[in-house]
Design a protein that fits this description.
7-stranded antiparallel β-sheet; Beta-Lactamase; disordered C terminus; about 25% strand; 26 strands; Alpha-Beta Plaits; 7-stranded mixed β-sheet; alpha+beta; single chain; about 700 residues
Length: about 700
């Protein structure tokens, strides 16, 4: 609805502005049309005035000729003057020049006789029968051939002509008659007479009466309207103007009540005599029309003019409708655009509201995700925390907002791990990559926690060192991995390395000894009397014995050495590095003595087991790990066959060396069904209670080496 109202307001405003623009532009063009019309009318006025005034100069020239003859008008002299002028070129439209003396009716016969005697025997006076006391007879008219009907004509016999003569006498100036039919014009179209009074030589009359007394006659020029106005319309053919030329006509008659005659119409040319203005359509309906009056030789002309209808349609109407159509189109487009924009804005607003609501929900969802306990997040700038979620605080045991501004160095175990992660991670992050690592870190209370770190740079931040880190607590998974790894490489019962881990460490020890030019000892041992313990006390007791042996082996060696259980009651001790093979002897003897120590059981009983040792050395007895293990195993069996509780060392190409500690076995009572140590029974015998004396030495403690 808002879009429709807005579009209607724009449309109405645009239409109002368009209408105003149409009117303004139309008025502007009309005003310009008036200026064009005024310029053309002024040009037409000057042309009309020049056409009617030019003959006056010719008549005044003739008056000068008469003055030169001292008032005597000689026919030959007058003819000579007229012939000296090029009438068609100098005075277009003028039929000729003539002289009209004033003759009293009583003097008429004498006047006629005098004219005939002046080389004009055919001269006769004629007119319209007016019985006025004086006559104004055309005595001379040149060229006579063109004006013969006017020769001898009494101008005073016709009212219009007489009125013009009287006007010339009264004013003493040239006078132009109203339209009259010229007697010399066979077409009988409208004509006019131009009269210039001639006074006696030396007279300077100032009043009408003085002029009448001093009047010698009238110089006159018959003007044919068709000829004097010829070319007037054609000269303005290129101008976008229609015009009419009217002249005042004081004739009062029943059939001609008008006081003006329509002399010329641009559409029809010269009109018949005494044509009233209403006979031709005027310019009342034209948008740009005007008129002006001009007086020529006492005669008033009125010029009516208007711009042509073609000009009005092409210029004025177009000036209104052209901008109107353009404005209408633009207004319609603007209204449509406004509607579309308003409708689009409404749709955009609705979409924005929907998006805002979606964004709010997404923000809530993101906030919920950020506050999850699963993943801790921290935004760092300069390796200080500037933003974090609650999971980070819970992960490291800090209170609410206690970690803001905290240097992350506080979360690392030591300076080395802090520096190492920075050196490894930040070059990757600056290149736009992701960095991931598993790191053991420190909680606020000092306890350790394993975290999976995933970092990324934030390119939208001004500080290029701004990074986002996501952390997941993997302490339990790490513990599980450790358990799985330990289960894979350690004996489940004793916790000692198993055969797999032993083989790996043996290969590493051989490689290291080869580089360092040192020795390695592989001590293969098998327990003596273990089966008897299982048979007499059960497998749980046997497990306790195995654990005790494993512990004694681990406690009797260095950190660089390895004690491993291969399975059953077989163990291997790896001594590395050794300066020389002989350095393994005290260690082996110490280990056997530790094994021979009685083992207290959880049941309260005490048992004793022994062990047979076989020892091979790198590089004395072999340079390959498998070879060393095989030779140590074989040597152990040889030691066991020799009598148990013995240590047998290979010595390269030399005979093996051996030590016998069987004497450290406790004697057994026959009532218990146990064999004494060192017997050759096929089965191991169970151990007896410890019978050490009060001095702390075991009975029969001796050794036998060979």
């Amino acid at each position: 609805m808002t879009a429709v109202v807005g579009a209607l307001l724009v449309l109405l405003t645009g239409l109002a502005l368009t209408l105003s623009a149409m009117l303004w532009n139309r008025n502007r063009v009309v005003a310009e049309g008036h200026r064009v019309l005024e310029a053309q009318m002024e040009r037409l006025r000057r042309d009309v005035v020049q056409r009617f005034v030019q003959p006056v100069y010719g008549l005044k020239g003739a008056r000068g000729t008469i003055a030169a003859l001292h008032g005597r008008v000689d026919r030959h002299a007058f003819r000579a003057y007229v012939q000296s002028r090029d009438l068609p070129r100098e005075f277009p439209g003028v039929r000729g020049f003539g002289f009209v003396p004033r003759v009293l009716r009583a003097d008429l016969p004498a006047f006629i006789a005098a004219e005939r005697a002046d080389d004009a025997p055919q001269f006769a006076v004629h007119g319209f029968g007016d019985a006025a006391p004086d006559l104004y007879v055309v005595a001379h008219i040149e060229p006579l051939a063109q004006n013969y009907p006017a020769w001898g004509f009494d101008l005073g016999s016709e009212s219009i002509r007489r009125r013009t003569i009287e006007q010339a006498i009264i004013t003493g100036e040239a006078s132009l008659s109203a339209p009259v039919p010229l007697v010399q014009d066979r077409a009988h179209g409208p004509g006019m007479l131009l009269l210039v009074p001639v006074f006696r030589d030396g007279a300077d009359p100032t009043t009408p009466e003085q002029r009448r007394q001093a009047l010698l006659g009238m110089l006159y020029a018959p003007l044919v309207a068709q000829e004097i106005l010829h070319g007037l319309k054609e000269g303005l053919a290129a101008a976008p103007m229609d015009f009419r030329l009217l002249v005042d006509d004081p004739t009062i008659a029943a059939d001609h009540p008008a006081v003006e005659d329509l002399l010329l119409d641009s559409a029809g040319g010269i009109l018949p005599l005494h044509t009233p203005p209403a006979a031709r359509p005027g310019f009342d309906t034209r948008m740009v029309a005007d008129e002006l009056k001009v007086e020529i030789a006492g005669r008033t002309f009125r010029l009516e003019a208007a711009l042509t209808t073609a000009y009005e349609r092409a210029v004025i109407d177009a000036a209104g409708w052209g901008p109107g159509l353009i404005g209408l189109v633009l207004t319609t487009l603007l209204a449509a655009t406004t509607y579309l924009m308003a409708a689009g804005r409404a749709r955009a607003q609705a979409l924005a509201d929907t998006m805002t609501e979606d964004l709010r929900r997404i923000t809530l969802d993101q906030q919920a995700m950020l506050d999850t306990d699963v993943m801790a997040m921290a935004k760092l700038r300069g390796r200080r925390i500037v933003w974090k979620n609650g999971a980070l605080e819970r992960l490291f045991g800090y209170g609410r907002d206690e970690m803001l501004g905290l240097a992350v160095r506080e979360l690392y175990l030591d300076e080395d791990s802090f520096v190492a992660l920075g050196q490894n991670a930040y070059p990757v992050l600056r290149r736009g990559g992701h960095y991931r690592s598993q790191q053991q870190m420190r909680r606020k209370d000092g306890s350790l926690v394993w975290v999976d770190l995933n970092g990324v740079a934030l390119p939208g931040e001004r500080d290029e060192e701004t990074t986002l880190w996501m952390m997941v607590d993997i302490t339990q998974s790490k513990a599980y991995e450790a358990r799985v790894e330990r289960a894979a490489f350690h004996d489940a019962l004793t916790g000692l390395p198993n055969r797999v881990l032993l083989a790996d460490r043996l290969r590493q020890a051989v490689a290291s000894a080869q580089r360092l030019k040192q020795a390695v000892a592989v001590v293969y041992l098998d327990l003596d009397g273990f089966k008897a313990v299982n048979d007499a006390h059960g497998h749980d007791a046997g497990d306790e014995v195995l654990k005790a042996v494993a512990q004694r082996l681990s406690e009797g060696i260095r950190a660089t050495d390895t004690a491993a259980r291969l399975g059953g009651d077989e163990f291997v001790v790896l001594l590395t590095p050794l300066p020389s093979p002989i350095d393994s002897r005290p260690v082996c003897e110490r280990l056997l003595r530790a094994i021979l120590a009685p083992v207290p059981l959880s049941s309260g009983a005490r048992v004793q087991v022994g062990a047979s040792f076989g020892v091979a050395h790198y590089p004395l007895d072999g340079v390959d790990a498998e070879v060393l293990m095989s030779r140590a195993d074989q040597t152990m069996f040889e030691s066991k066959r020799a009598g148990r509780c013995r240590i047998r060392w290979l010595n390269g190409a030399q005979p093996p060396q051996e030590i016998d500690l069987s004497a450290l076995r406790q004697p057994t009572a026959s009532s218990a069904g146990e064999a004494a140590p060192g017997t050759s029974e096929a089965s191991d015998m169970p151990g007896m209670p410890d019978t050490s004396d009060t001095s702390g030495k075991r009975a029969g403690d001796h050794s036998h080496a060979r």
